[in-house]
């Protein structure tokens, strides 16, 4: 005799099946950095996020490092479409949420710890909510790409006057163009992939990047001088599709949020390590490194900030209020 399911039983089985499918959801996590956790801040963040989430939930996390799914702009778009659920990005966030670009105002943060206090406090929470409303992407936590510094092959830079007449490769982002102009240098937007050749052939005299990026990509071999001016502190955004986040149970959401916060701090730690190690290594390999005094940094800020702030106020419109909110938060954190 064939057993017949009642409609009630079938409905119950369907409900159980759907619940099991929900529990077996997969998170695709992507970033553009190397996978090696001991040298890559995003790599480290991704691995600890995966371990915590898989260890404490029925969720599975698949990692796609090293640009396997595309560049940062493409990853943001994928997350907005819920094709890739979690992405770790830096500069691309300001394109999706223009208010995030205020974090790139030069010489805003005097130290990483002040940046952490600001981003992990009320300002960071408010910016996350604002960007969520604009993009559909929830900022789970902030990581770190690190402070950017100038290098060149011509002379030591101690003051803005030392930058005059030098051509610096910058990212093709107007804010960076305005910054170098304000400092007296000649900004030259060049794609990252073309930078080594541009330095080797003299198309540009210098460039700017975090120390770890400079060392790990061999740029110190093409440049003689580095100035640790830390002109821009670059944050990583650990983003999740809010559509996907809302599909999780409250218990799953809590684990994912906590894992992301730990991942952000892990990324920060790896970045701090690679910076300290990188400074020692470039010096050991012959690069001359200069650390400006507080007064010298103030002189750089006096030249660079007004041009960038003026540009951003024009670009952001009503969102320019985020400039003032950031400055107030930094002042409070610096007391």
UniProtKB/TrEMBL annotation:
GO BP terms? transmembrane transport
Q: Which domain of life is it from?
A: Bacteria
Entries under PANTHER family matching the protein: C4-DICARBOXYLATE-BINDING PROTEIN DCTB, PTHR33376
Gene Ontology cellular component? outer membrane-bounded periplasmic space
Identify the stretch annotated as signal peptide in this record.
1-21
Q: Which family does it belong to?
A: Belongs to the bacterial solute-binding protein 7 family.
Q: Which InterPro entries match?
A: DctP_fam (IPR018389), TRAP_DctP (IPR004682), TRAP_DctP_sf (IPR038404)
Q: What is this protein called?
A: Extracytoplasmic solute receptor protein YiaO
The family database entries (Pfam families) matched by this protein are listed as:
DctP
Entry keywords, A to Z: Receptor, Signal, Transport
């Amino acid at each position: 005799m064939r057993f017949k399911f009642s409609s009630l039983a079938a409905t119950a089985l369907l409900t159980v099946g759907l619940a099991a499918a929900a529990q077996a959801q997969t998170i695709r996590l992507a970033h553009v950095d190397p996978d090696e956790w001991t040298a890559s801040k995003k790599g480290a963040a991704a691995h600890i996020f995966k371990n915590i989430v898989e260890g404490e939930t029925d969720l599975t996390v698949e990692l796609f490092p090293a640009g396997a799914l595309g560049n940062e702009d493409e990853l943001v778009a994928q997350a907005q479409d819920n094709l890739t659920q979690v992405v770790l990005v830096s500069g691309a966030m300001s394109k999706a949420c223009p208010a995030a670009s205020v974090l790139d105002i030069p010489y805003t943060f005097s130290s990483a710890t002040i940046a952490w206090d600001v981003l992990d406090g009320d300002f960071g929470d408010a910016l996350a909510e604002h960007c969520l409303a604009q993009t559909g992407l929830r900022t789970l936590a902030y990581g770190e790409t690190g402070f950017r510094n100038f290098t060149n092959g011509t002379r030591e830079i101690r003051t803005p006057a030392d930058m005059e007449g030098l051509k610096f490769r910058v990212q093709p982002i107007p804010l960076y163009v305005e910054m170098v102009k304000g400092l007296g240098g000649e900004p030259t937007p060049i794609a990252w992939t073309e930078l080594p050749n541009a330095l080797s052939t003299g198309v540009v005299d210098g460039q700017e990047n975090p120390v770890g990026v400079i060392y790990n990509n061999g740029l110190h071999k093409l440049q003689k001088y580095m100035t640790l001016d830390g002109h821009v502190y670059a944050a990583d955004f650990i983003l999740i599709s809010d559509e996907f986040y809302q599909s999780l149970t409250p218990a799953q959401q809590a684990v994912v949020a906590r894992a992301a916060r730990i991942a952000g701090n892990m990324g920060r730690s790896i970045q701090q390590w690679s910076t300290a190690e990188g400074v020692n290594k470039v010096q050991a390999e012959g690069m001359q490194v200069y650390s400006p005094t507080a007064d010298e940094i103030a002189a750089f800020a006096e030249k660079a900030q007004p041009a960038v702030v003026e540009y951003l106020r024009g670009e952001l419109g009503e969102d320019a209020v985020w400039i003032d909110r950031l400055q107030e938060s930094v002042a409070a954190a610096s007391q």
